[in-house]
Amino acid sequence: MSEFDALCANDGDLADLRVRVRRFVAADRDRFGWKPEIDSWLTSWDAGFSERLADAGFVGLTIPTEYGGHGLGFLHRYVVTEELLGAGAPVAAHWFADRQVAPSLLSYGSEEQRRRLLPGIAAGRLYSAIGMSEHGAGSDLAATATRATRTGDGWLLNGTKVWTSGGHRAHFAIVLARTSPLDPEHRHAGFSQFIVTLDAPGVTISPIVTLDGHHHFNEVTFDDVAVGDADLLGEVGDGWHQVTAELGFERSGPERILSTAILIFGVIRALGTQHVDDRTAAEVGDLIGRAMALRQLSVSVARALSDGQDAATRAALVKDLGTRFEQQSVELCADLLDYVDDDGDLRAILATARQHSPMFTLRGGTNEVLRGVIARGLGVR
After folding, report:
1. What letter would DSSP give residue 337?
2. I want to staple 360 with a disulfide (CB 3.0 to 4.6 A). Which of 93, 192, 224, 323 is the partner?
3. pTM (2 decimals)?
4. 8 Å CB contact between 227 and 201
Protein backbone atom coordinates (compact mmCIF):
# COMPACT_ATOMS: atom_id res chain seq x y z
CA MET A 1 0.00 0.00 0.00
CA SER A 2 1.37 3.41 -0.98
CA GLU A 3 1.66 6.30 1.44
CA PHE A 4 -1.13 8.08 -0.45
CA ASP A 5 -3.42 5.03 -0.21
CA ALA A 6 -2.75 4.86 3.53
CA LEU A 7 -3.88 8.45 3.96
CA CYS A 8 -7.08 7.86 1.97
CA ALA A 9 -8.31 5.33 4.59
CA ASN A 10 -10.18 3.34 1.95
CA ASP A 11 -8.01 0.22 1.96
CA GLY A 12 -9.34 -3.24 2.69
CA ASP A 13 -12.94 -3.16 3.83
CA LEU A 14 -12.86 0.55 4.79
CA ALA A 15 -14.26 1.71 1.45
CA ASP A 16 -17.28 -0.60 1.76
CA LEU A 17 -17.79 0.53 5.35
CA ARG A 18 -17.71 4.17 4.25
CA VAL A 19 -20.39 3.55 1.62
CA ARG A 20 -22.63 1.69 4.08
CA VAL A 21 -22.41 4.47 6.68
CA ARG A 22 -23.11 7.13 4.07
CA ARG A 23 -26.21 5.24 2.89
CA PHE A 24 -27.45 4.74 6.44
CA VAL A 25 -27.08 8.43 7.30
CA ALA A 26 -28.92 9.56 4.17
CA ALA A 27 -31.78 7.11 4.72
CA ASP A 28 -32.07 7.89 8.43
CA ARG A 29 -32.18 11.63 7.80
CA ASP A 30 -34.87 11.21 5.14
CA ARG A 31 -37.00 9.09 7.47
CA PHE A 32 -36.56 10.93 10.78
CA GLY A 33 -35.99 14.47 9.54
CA TRP A 34 -33.07 15.52 11.73
CA LYS A 35 -31.07 18.51 10.53
CA PRO A 36 -27.28 18.62 10.18
CA GLU A 37 -25.64 20.66 12.93
CA ILE A 38 -22.36 22.42 13.57
CA ASP A 39 -20.49 20.66 16.40
CA SER A 40 -22.91 17.73 16.23
CA TRP A 41 -20.65 15.52 18.37
CA LEU A 42 -21.00 17.95 21.26
CA THR A 43 -24.45 19.51 20.96
CA SER A 44 -26.75 17.25 18.91
CA TRP A 45 -28.11 14.69 21.38
CA ASP A 46 -30.55 12.21 19.84
CA ALA A 47 -30.86 8.95 21.77
CA GLY A 48 -32.98 7.41 19.04
CA PHE A 49 -30.33 8.08 16.41
CA SER A 50 -27.59 6.56 18.59
CA GLU A 51 -29.69 3.41 19.08
CA ARG A 52 -30.44 3.10 15.37
CA LEU A 53 -26.79 3.68 14.54
CA ALA A 54 -25.79 0.93 16.96
CA ASP A 55 -28.45 -1.44 15.62
CA ALA A 56 -26.96 -0.88 12.16
CA GLY A 57 -23.55 -1.93 13.49
CA PHE A 58 -21.82 1.47 13.59
CA VAL A 59 -21.26 1.95 17.36
CA GLY A 60 -18.77 0.00 19.44
CA LEU A 61 -16.62 -0.91 16.46
CA THR A 62 -13.44 -1.22 18.54
CA ILE A 63 -15.14 -3.15 21.36
CA PRO A 64 -14.43 -6.92 21.20
CA THR A 65 -17.32 -9.18 20.23
CA GLU A 66 -17.42 -10.86 23.66
CA TYR A 67 -18.52 -7.51 25.11
CA GLY A 68 -21.15 -6.81 22.46
CA GLY A 69 -18.96 -4.89 20.01
CA HIS A 70 -17.60 -5.64 16.56
CA GLY A 71 -13.92 -6.33 17.24
CA LEU A 72 -12.66 -3.95 14.58
CA GLY A 73 -9.87 -1.34 14.66
CA PHE A 74 -9.51 2.38 15.20
CA LEU A 75 -9.44 3.02 11.46
CA HIS A 76 -12.89 1.48 11.12
CA ARG A 77 -14.18 3.81 13.80
CA TYR A 78 -12.33 6.69 12.15
CA VAL A 79 -14.15 6.11 8.85
CA VAL A 80 -17.54 5.93 10.57
CA THR A 81 -16.76 9.06 12.59
CA GLU A 82 -15.66 10.95 9.50
CA GLU A 83 -18.87 10.16 7.65
CA LEU A 84 -21.09 11.03 10.62
CA LEU A 85 -19.41 14.37 11.28
CA GLY A 86 -19.29 15.23 7.59
CA ALA A 87 -23.06 14.83 7.57
CA GLY A 88 -23.57 16.76 10.83
CA ALA A 89 -25.39 13.75 12.31
CA PRO A 90 -26.74 13.91 15.91
CA VAL A 91 -24.16 11.68 17.62
CA ALA A 92 -23.65 13.36 21.01
CA ALA A 93 -25.57 10.79 23.08
CA HIS A 94 -23.14 7.91 22.56
CA TRP A 95 -20.06 9.98 21.66
CA PHE A 96 -17.96 10.12 24.82
CA ALA A 97 -18.71 6.57 25.89
CA ASP A 98 -17.73 5.18 22.50
CA ARG A 99 -14.77 7.48 21.86
CA GLN A 100 -13.03 7.57 25.25
CA VAL A 101 -14.61 5.37 27.87
CA ALA A 102 -14.64 2.12 25.90
CA PRO A 103 -10.89 2.25 25.08
CA SER A 104 -10.13 3.12 28.71
CA LEU A 105 -12.18 0.18 29.98
CA LEU A 106 -10.43 -2.16 27.57
CA SER A 107 -7.01 -0.88 28.62
CA TYR A 108 -7.47 -0.43 32.37
CA GLY A 109 -10.87 -1.72 33.45
CA SER A 110 -11.55 -4.89 35.41
CA GLU A 111 -13.33 -7.79 33.75
CA GLU A 112 -16.42 -7.01 35.84
CA GLN A 113 -16.40 -3.38 34.68
CA ARG A 114 -16.06 -4.40 31.05
CA ARG A 115 -18.95 -6.84 31.22
CA ARG A 116 -21.07 -4.35 33.13
CA LEU A 117 -20.55 -1.34 30.86
CA LEU A 118 -19.26 -2.24 27.41
CA PRO A 119 -22.40 -4.02 26.09
CA GLY A 120 -24.54 -0.95 26.83
CA ILE A 121 -21.99 1.34 25.18
CA ALA A 122 -21.87 -0.88 22.08
CA ALA A 123 -25.68 -0.83 21.96
CA GLY A 124 -25.71 2.98 21.94
CA ARG A 125 -27.86 3.01 25.06
CA LEU A 126 -25.39 3.72 27.87
CA TYR A 127 -24.13 7.30 28.04
CA SER A 128 -21.05 8.66 29.76
CA ALA A 129 -19.67 12.05 30.71
CA ILE A 130 -16.03 12.92 31.36
CA GLY A 131 -15.16 14.50 34.73
CA MET A 132 -11.79 16.15 34.18
CA SER A 133 -11.89 19.97 34.06
CA GLU A 134 -12.46 22.08 37.18
CA HIS A 135 -12.76 25.80 37.86
CA GLY A 136 -9.09 25.94 38.77
CA ALA A 137 -7.92 23.07 36.58
CA GLY A 138 -8.86 23.31 32.95
CA SER A 139 -6.01 22.53 30.60
CA ASP A 140 -3.70 22.11 33.62
CA LEU A 141 -5.30 18.95 34.99
CA ALA A 142 -2.44 18.54 37.45
CA ALA A 143 -4.19 21.26 39.48
CA THR A 144 -7.23 19.00 39.97
CA ALA A 145 -8.60 19.52 43.48
CA THR A 146 -11.34 16.87 43.56
CA ARG A 147 -10.37 14.30 46.16
CA ALA A 148 -11.21 10.67 46.81
CA THR A 149 -10.61 9.65 50.43
CA ARG A 150 -10.20 6.01 51.43
CA THR A 151 -12.88 4.52 53.65
CA GLY A 152 -13.34 1.05 55.05
CA ASP A 153 -15.14 -0.31 51.99
CA GLY A 154 -14.39 2.19 49.26
CA TRP A 155 -13.96 5.92 48.73
CA LEU A 156 -15.64 9.23 49.47
CA LEU A 157 -15.52 11.65 46.55
CA ASN A 158 -15.59 15.44 47.07
CA GLY A 159 -15.10 18.22 44.57
CA THR A 160 -16.56 19.95 41.53
CA LYS A 161 -16.15 19.34 37.82
CA VAL A 162 -17.12 21.87 35.18
CA TRP A 163 -17.82 21.95 31.42
CA THR A 164 -19.13 18.41 31.80
CA SER A 165 -20.74 17.79 28.42
CA GLY A 166 -23.97 15.81 28.58
CA GLY A 167 -23.70 15.31 32.33
CA HIS A 168 -27.42 16.00 32.82
CA ARG A 169 -28.27 13.07 30.52
CA ALA A 170 -25.39 10.66 31.07
CA HIS A 171 -25.71 7.55 33.20
CA PHE A 172 -22.21 7.81 34.66
CA ALA A 173 -19.00 9.80 34.50
CA ILE A 174 -15.33 8.90 34.57
CA VAL A 175 -13.96 11.21 37.26
CA LEU A 176 -10.33 12.16 37.82
CA ALA A 177 -9.57 12.69 41.52
CA ARG A 178 -6.55 13.07 43.75
CA THR A 179 -6.07 10.04 46.00
CA SER A 180 -2.73 11.08 47.53
CA PRO A 181 -1.55 14.42 48.94
CA LEU A 182 -0.04 16.84 46.45
CA ASP A 183 3.71 16.52 46.00
CA PRO A 184 4.93 19.85 44.51
CA GLU A 185 7.93 18.05 43.00
CA HIS A 186 5.71 15.47 41.27
CA ARG A 187 2.45 17.25 40.40
CA HIS A 188 1.24 14.47 38.12
CA ALA A 189 1.45 11.77 40.78
CA GLY A 190 -1.31 10.67 43.14
CA PHE A 191 -4.33 10.68 40.81
CA SER A 192 -6.89 7.94 40.21
CA GLN A 193 -10.02 7.56 38.09
CA PHE A 194 -13.46 6.47 39.23
CA ILE A 195 -16.66 5.33 37.57
CA VAL A 196 -19.41 7.39 39.23
CA THR A 197 -23.13 7.01 38.59
CA LEU A 198 -24.62 10.47 38.19
CA ASP A 199 -27.82 9.76 40.10
CA ALA A 200 -25.88 8.71 43.22
CA PRO A 201 -26.60 10.46 46.54
CA GLY A 202 -24.42 13.55 46.88
CA VAL A 203 -24.16 14.29 43.15
CA THR A 204 -25.55 17.69 42.12
CA ILE A 205 -25.72 18.67 38.45
CA SER A 206 -26.17 22.34 37.58
CA PRO A 207 -26.69 23.53 33.99
CA ILE A 208 -24.31 25.87 32.19
CA VAL A 209 -26.31 27.55 29.43
CA THR A 210 -24.31 28.99 26.55
CA LEU A 211 -24.97 32.36 24.94
CA ASP A 212 -27.06 30.75 22.20
CA GLY A 213 -29.42 29.34 24.85
CA HIS A 214 -28.27 25.73 24.59
CA HIS A 215 -27.62 23.44 27.52
CA HIS A 216 -24.99 20.79 26.95
CA PHE A 217 -22.39 21.86 29.55
CA ASN A 218 -22.80 21.30 33.29
CA GLU A 219 -21.18 21.85 36.64
CA VAL A 220 -21.16 18.60 38.61
CA THR A 221 -20.55 18.67 42.37
CA PHE A 222 -19.65 15.61 44.44
CA ASP A 223 -20.43 15.91 48.15
CA ASP A 224 -19.31 12.82 50.07
CA VAL A 225 -20.29 10.56 47.19
CA ALA A 226 -19.66 6.94 48.10
CA VAL A 227 -17.74 5.01 45.44
CA GLY A 228 -16.98 1.33 45.87
CA ASP A 229 -13.70 -0.36 45.06
CA ALA A 230 -15.45 -2.03 42.12
CA ASP A 231 -15.71 1.42 40.52
CA LEU A 232 -12.04 2.31 40.71
CA LEU A 233 -10.85 2.40 37.09
CA GLY A 234 -7.36 0.95 36.82
CA GLU A 235 -4.91 1.11 39.67
CA VAL A 236 -4.71 3.63 42.50
CA GLY A 237 -2.25 6.34 41.52
CA ASP A 238 -2.27 5.55 37.79
CA GLY A 239 -4.85 8.21 36.94
CA TRP A 240 -2.47 10.60 35.19
CA HIS A 241 -1.11 7.93 32.86
CA GLN A 242 -4.65 6.79 32.06
CA VAL A 243 -5.91 10.30 31.39
CA THR A 244 -2.97 11.07 29.13
CA ALA A 245 -3.72 8.01 27.02
CA GLU A 246 -7.42 8.85 26.98
CA LEU A 247 -6.73 12.37 25.74
CA GLY A 248 -4.93 10.90 22.75
CA PHE A 249 -8.27 9.54 21.52
CA GLU A 250 -10.03 12.82 22.31
CA ARG A 251 -7.53 15.14 20.63
CA SER A 252 -6.68 13.30 17.42
CA GLY A 253 -10.06 12.40 15.99
CA PRO A 254 -11.72 13.96 12.96
CA GLU A 255 -13.98 16.01 15.23
CA ARG A 256 -10.98 18.35 15.60
CA ILE A 257 -11.17 19.25 11.92
CA LEU A 258 -14.80 18.51 10.96
CA SER A 259 -16.87 20.47 13.49
CA THR A 260 -17.54 23.03 10.74
CA ALA A 261 -17.72 20.52 7.88
CA ILE A 262 -21.36 21.09 6.99
CA LEU A 263 -20.67 24.81 6.60
CA ILE A 264 -17.60 24.26 4.42
CA PHE A 265 -19.29 21.63 2.25
CA GLY A 266 -22.43 23.72 1.95
CA VAL A 267 -20.56 26.84 0.85
CA ILE A 268 -18.52 24.95 -1.72
CA ARG A 269 -21.60 23.26 -3.16
CA ALA A 270 -23.33 26.63 -3.39
CA LEU A 271 -20.33 28.20 -5.11
CA GLY A 272 -20.46 25.40 -7.67
CA THR A 273 -23.68 26.90 -9.04
CA GLN A 274 -22.16 30.38 -9.31
CA HIS A 275 -19.66 32.00 -11.64
CA VAL A 276 -16.62 32.75 -9.49
CA ASP A 277 -13.46 34.67 -10.32
CA ASP A 278 -9.92 33.35 -10.02
CA ARG A 279 -9.41 34.91 -6.58
CA THR A 280 -12.46 33.16 -5.16
CA ALA A 281 -11.42 29.87 -6.75
CA ALA A 282 -7.99 30.24 -5.15
CA GLU A 283 -9.57 30.85 -1.73
CA VAL A 284 -11.64 27.69 -2.10
CA GLY A 285 -8.56 25.76 -3.15
CA ASP A 286 -6.64 27.00 -0.12
CA LEU A 287 -9.49 26.02 2.20
CA ILE A 288 -9.77 22.51 0.78
CA GLY A 289 -6.01 22.05 0.62
CA ARG A 290 -5.61 22.86 4.31
CA ALA A 291 -8.50 20.57 5.23
CA MET A 292 -6.97 17.69 3.27
CA ALA A 293 -3.55 18.15 4.87
CA LEU A 294 -5.07 18.13 8.36
CA ARG A 295 -7.14 15.08 7.55
CA GLN A 296 -4.06 13.21 6.41
CA LEU A 297 -2.30 14.10 9.66
CA SER A 298 -5.33 12.90 11.62
CA VAL A 299 -5.47 9.62 9.66
CA SER A 300 -1.77 9.03 10.36
CA VAL A 301 -2.49 9.31 14.10
CA ALA A 302 -5.40 6.87 13.76
CA ARG A 303 -3.07 4.39 12.08
CA ALA A 304 -0.51 4.85 14.87
CA LEU A 305 -3.18 4.15 17.49
CA SER A 306 -4.26 1.09 15.49
CA ASP A 307 -0.68 -0.16 15.67
CA GLY A 308 -0.55 0.38 19.43
CA GLN A 309 1.90 3.27 19.21
CA ASP A 310 2.12 6.25 21.57
CA ALA A 311 0.59 9.11 19.60
CA ALA A 312 0.20 11.72 22.36
CA THR A 313 2.46 14.32 20.72
CA ARG A 314 0.93 13.90 17.27
CA ALA A 315 -2.56 13.95 18.76
CA ALA A 316 -1.81 17.28 20.43
CA LEU A 317 -0.51 18.60 17.11
CA VAL A 318 -3.71 17.54 15.32
CA LYS A 319 -5.80 19.27 17.96
CA ASP A 320 -3.79 22.51 17.77
CA LEU A 321 -3.71 22.76 13.99
CA GLY A 322 -7.20 21.36 13.50
CA THR A 323 -9.06 23.62 15.88
CA ARG A 324 -7.26 26.70 14.59
CA PHE A 325 -8.32 25.68 11.09
CA GLU A 326 -11.90 25.28 12.30
CA GLN A 327 -11.91 28.79 13.69
CA GLN A 328 -10.37 30.30 10.58
CA SER A 329 -12.69 28.35 8.27
CA VAL A 330 -15.72 30.09 9.77
CA GLU A 331 -14.66 33.54 8.60
CA LEU A 332 -13.31 32.19 5.30
CA CYS A 333 -16.73 30.71 4.63
CA ALA A 334 -18.37 33.98 5.66
CA ASP A 335 -16.31 35.79 3.01
CA LEU A 336 -17.16 33.17 0.38
CA LEU A 337 -20.87 33.46 1.15
CA ASP A 338 -20.77 36.97 -0.27
CA TYR A 339 -20.62 35.31 -3.68
CA VAL A 340 -23.61 33.03 -3.04
CA ASP A 341 -27.32 33.61 -3.53
CA ASP A 342 -28.40 31.76 -0.41
CA ASP A 343 -31.91 31.21 0.91
CA GLY A 344 -30.76 31.70 4.49
CA ASP A 345 -29.94 28.12 5.50
CA LEU A 346 -26.19 28.53 5.10
CA ARG A 347 -26.23 31.88 6.87
CA ALA A 348 -28.03 30.28 9.81
CA ILE A 349 -25.34 27.59 9.94
CA LEU A 350 -22.69 30.33 9.75
CA ALA A 351 -24.28 32.15 12.69
CA THR A 352 -24.14 28.98 14.79
CA ALA A 353 -20.55 28.35 13.76
CA ARG A 354 -19.56 31.84 14.88
CA GLN A 355 -21.14 31.24 18.28
CA HIS A 356 -19.25 27.97 18.71
CA SER A 357 -15.95 29.14 17.22
CA PRO A 358 -14.38 30.49 20.45
CA MET A 359 -14.72 27.03 22.03
CA PHE A 360 -12.80 25.18 19.34
CA THR A 361 -9.30 25.95 20.66
CA LEU A 362 -10.29 25.65 24.34
CA ARG A 363 -11.93 22.25 24.75
CA GLY A 364 -9.70 19.20 25.04
CA GLY A 365 -6.91 21.39 26.39
CA THR A 366 -6.16 24.91 25.27
CA ASN A 367 -3.87 25.16 22.28
CA GLU A 368 -1.35 27.22 24.26
CA VAL A 369 -0.90 24.39 26.77
CA LEU A 370 -0.84 21.76 24.02
CA ARG A 371 2.10 23.53 22.39
CA GLY A 372 4.02 22.80 25.57
CA VAL A 373 3.02 19.13 25.28
CA ILE A 374 4.22 19.12 21.68
CA ALA A 375 7.51 20.80 22.58
CA ARG A 376 8.22 18.31 25.36
CA GLY A 377 7.31 15.43 23.05
CA LEU A 378 9.86 16.72 20.55
CA GLY A 379 12.52 16.97 23.22
CA VAL A 380 12.45 20.76 23.52
CA ARG A 381 12.85 22.18 27.02
Report:
1. G
2. 323
3. 0.88
4. no
